[in-house]
Amino acid sequence: MHEGGIAQSIVEILAEVKEQNELSCITSVTLKVGKMSGVMIYALEFALEAIKCEEEFIKNTKFNIISVDVKAKCSLCGREYQFADTDEMNLLCPDCQMPLSIINGKELEIVDVEGK
Amino acid sequence: MKRIVVEKKILEKNDDIANQIRKTLDSNHIFGLNVMSSPGAGKTTLIERMVEIFKSKYKIAAIDGDLDTQRDAQRIAALGIETVQINTSGACHLDSSMVYKALNDITLDLDLLIIENVGNLVCPASFYLGTHKNVVLISTPEGDDKVKKYPTMFNVADVVLINKTDIAQFVKFDVEKVENEIKELNPHALIYKISALKNDGLEPFLSWVESNIVSVKNQ
Questions:
Q1: Contact present, B65 and B95 (Cβ < 8 Å)
Q2: Taking the domains of chain B in order of start, what are their residue ranges?
Q3: Residue B56 pLDDT > 90, yes or no?
Q4: ipTM score
Q5: Chain B contacts of A114, Cβ < 8 Å?
Q6: Domain ranges, ordered by start, for chain A
């Protein structure tokens, strides 16, 4: 599982945010994780809980993870399709038989941070 | 209490280094190919076939990612090309900083750089390495239910090779079903049915590789 490495990258970015904004601790963080990002939310939560103990400034941080469904658009007719479950995903437009391009669902981002 | 809008990609650092690798490949006119699959799907055998065919015509090097041992690098180096083994000591994928470091040990007078990723159908898909194209193998003994179980991997593939098709009937692998599921997840992917071990069905894939080598060379 690579969620440990992802959690490490998150902490590195948070340390930068903390320095730049002269915070002493971070109270909450909002993350966006797309269903096609290859990251499992449960495993990421587990990794973040484990890594929290290692750094004083994130000891009591609350991580809010927003799961993003896959949304894709037909390049020909412009219709958009949303797939809550990647199992049911079909990236061919049922009307035009053209490939759909993914608009959402690959996110792996830090949205915002609260701290003091 | 302060609220700070960050809006930053978590893997931005990986992507930055990968973009530097891409620049190095482009400025040296080297076609970079990232080969991914589960363990045992035939990545090393495929690379051996590519090297056997192309080594008289093109300058090739390989970077080999494994948790441990030099076994794969030894197999590829035995064919007479420069090979660097990366041992990830537990990490389940290659990231761009590992490849960047390995590139320092390679002479960049090359036409083709093959990166054999760690055998894993999940994690390597999330880490861009700066290569031009991704090849994903799925082999018939793994079962024909794998494509939809690992959607991210099949979505990032430029080419999917269905390997070990010579034994598909013995392991009840429905090739047509797998092809359809790949098309659903990735309508752009080229799909070729091969047996790397028997050297069967490789021609269309090898000409795809060659056309990429030539186009990057002439960039």
A1: no
A2: 12-217
A3: yes
A4: 0.92
A5: 1-4
A6: 3-115
